[in-house]
């Protein structure tokens, strides 16, 4: 019986048969440690265990649709901050940036001049609509703050562009419904930037596959631990920097004076622009939890707030002060699915996703997976099935997240982080926020009708007032 799970790479188990250690990084081979001595390592070649079933090309060749036009897709970056630039650097392997856009001129210029993005040749813009008018833009990467994701993505899909949009895809549940509708109507490819579904060392995919194939038995509980949210403020008003179009940055959100900490990077700690930790990290770990449970096309029945602390006073679901971070700081929210399985989202344990089953336990975080119980013993004797892995990857090889997107643009396949399942996972996060913002009351969710039942005030919070001219419409 496995009693002790080794967590650190290279550490020996205390006695044979006790501990298990997986390393899926580096050359992508898999090592399963079943005992205390090095020779006890059982090397499970990638070909026999996890990776090979998906390493063969699936569908048409990379970017096939594009190649017939102009060899490589024409790309545009909209929102050239920290993450947008990182995404664009990844995409530059597969296509050419002809346009970069940011409401902060300095960010747009830096991306334009970047040796891997604009290479000094791309045109820079301050208004994304002009980018969408360009016929030579096949696909756009959206790296704006959350409150702009839905509008830009919908406008891009309607303009015939494929979209890689950062997570969390939406500011509200209602935006998610609209995005699903437009994606279906237009048939455009939409990849969400939840790259844990394509993580380089495959630990999340492995965890999901093990849970789905019953290796730890019937699941009793899932925990998505995502860290706490910061407090901050009071912050001072400042004059708007000359390079920034503050009105356009605010977009659908209420018009307010410029406070530096509302803007770049720190926007995620304000409900006006984001959902705080619950959507920022919930988008990743709640997604993995619901994917593993096979609940990614439905939603929870109930949402209970065990703990939900806000850094400022809220009234009717909205913050009462304007100069401090206002998203939740400490929380434990329990979302229970129709089959009775609770998924807890909490701030106070190590960042990662834990699956507790009747026959074992799996903890997975970036770069590490701990397996306890039947999960691993069975893994090398009986590898995860090819068909399950193919299903999880939607028939695509184990590529990086951006490559998966570009391949789907080429063969019109469904990307691994599709809009429909992301919308569902993020709905759980949005519901958790709504419940906390309303003082911690229990919510009942009808996942089929996508309605909060018996609580009109909470249900109305599926959407928000939007400034004229910036409405998100399907
Ligand atoms: N996948 C991940 O692991 C991951 C990691 C970090 C950030 N993100 C996501 O990436 C997004 C951006 O985060 P960040 O940290 O890079 O923020 P950031 O503030 O550094 O960058 C956002 C950029 O978008 C620009 N922008 C705002 N409104 C715009 C508009 N209407 N048109 C064009 N540009 C606009 C801003 O001026 C800024 O340059 C967020 O949604 C965040 O959640 C994802």
From TrEMBL:
SUPFAM superfamilies referenced in this protein's UniProt entry, alphabetically: Glyceraldehyde-3-phosphate dehydrogenase-like, C-terminal domain, NAD(P)-binding Rossmann-fold domains
Where in this chain does the record put each Gfo/Idh/MocA-like oxidoreductase N-terminal domain?
Answer: 76-193
Highest taxon of the source?
A: Bacteria
What protein is this chain from? Uncharacterized protein
Q: Which residues form the signal peptide?
A: none
Per the UniProt entry, what species is this protein from, by scientific name?
A: Paludisphaera borealis
Q: State the InterPro entries in the record.
A: Gfo/Idh/MocA-like_OxRdtase_N (IPR000683), Gfo/Idh/MocA_oxidrdct_glycsds (IPR050463), Gfo/Idh/MocA_OxRdtase_bact_C (IPR043906), NAD(P)-bd_dom_sf (IPR036291)
Record-annotated Gfo/Idh/MocA-like oxidoreductase bacterial type C-terminal domain positions: 236-305
A molecular function GO annotation: nucleotide binding
């Amino acid at each position: 019986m496995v009693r002790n799970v080794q967590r650190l790479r290279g550490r020996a188990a205390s006695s044979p048969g006790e501990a298990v250690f997986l390393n899926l990084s580096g050359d992508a081979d898999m090592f399963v440690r079943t005992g205390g001595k090095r020779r006890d390592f059982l090397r499970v070649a990638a070909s026999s265990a996890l990776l090979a079933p998906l390493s063969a090309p699936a569908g048409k060749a990379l970017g096939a649709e594009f190649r017939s036009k102009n060899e490589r897709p024409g790309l545009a970056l909209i929102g050239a901050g920290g993450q947008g630039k990182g995404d664009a650097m990844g995409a530059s392997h597969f296509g050419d940036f002809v346009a970069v856009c940011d409401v902060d001129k300095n960010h747009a210029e830096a991306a334009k001049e970047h040796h891997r993005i604009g290479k000094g040749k791309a045109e820079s813009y301050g208004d994304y609509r002009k980018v969408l008018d360009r016929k030579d833009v096949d696909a756009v990467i959206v790296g704006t703050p959350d409150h702009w994701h839905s509008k830009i993505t919908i406008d891009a899909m309607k303009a015939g562009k494929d979209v890689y949009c950062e997570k969390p895809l939406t500011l509200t549940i209602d935006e998610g419904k609209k995005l699903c509708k437009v994606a279906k109507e237009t048939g455009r490819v939409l990849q969400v930037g939840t790259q844990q579904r394509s993580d380089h060392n495959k630990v999340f995919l492995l965890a999901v596959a093990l849970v789905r194939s019953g290796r730890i038995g019937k699941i009793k509980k899932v925990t998505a631990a995502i860290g706490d949210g910061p407090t901050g403020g009071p912050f001072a008003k400042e004059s708007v920097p000359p390079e920034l179009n503050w009105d356009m940055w605010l977009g659908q959100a209420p018009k307010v004076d410029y406070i530096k900490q509302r803007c770049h990077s720190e926007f995620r700690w304000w409900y006006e622009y984001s959902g705080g930790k619950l959507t920022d990290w919930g988008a990743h770990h709640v997604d993995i939890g619901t994917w593993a449970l096979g609940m990614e096309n439905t939603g929870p029945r109930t949402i209970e707030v065990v703990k939900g602390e806000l850094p400022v006073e809220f009234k009717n679901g909205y913050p009462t002060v304007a100069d401090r971070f206002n998203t939740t700081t400490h929380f434990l929210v329990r979302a229970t699915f129709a089959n009775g399985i609770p998924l807890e989202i909490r701030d106070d344990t190590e960042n990662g996703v834990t699956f507790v089953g009747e026959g074992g336990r799996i903890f997975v975080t970036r770069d590490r997976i701990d397996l306890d119980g039947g999960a691993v013993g069975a893994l090398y004797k009986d590898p995860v099935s090819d068909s399950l892995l193919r299903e999880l990857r939607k028939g695509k090889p184990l590529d990086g997240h951006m490559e998966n997107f570009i391949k789907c643009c080429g063969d019109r396949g469904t990307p691994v982080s599709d809009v429909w399942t992301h919308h569902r996972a993020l709905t759980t996060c949005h519901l958790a926020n709504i419940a906390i913002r309303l003082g911690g009351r229990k919510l009942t969710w009808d996942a089929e009708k996508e309605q909060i039942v018996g609580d009109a005030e909470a249900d109305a919070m599926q959407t928000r007032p939007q400034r004229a001219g910036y409405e998100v419409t399907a």
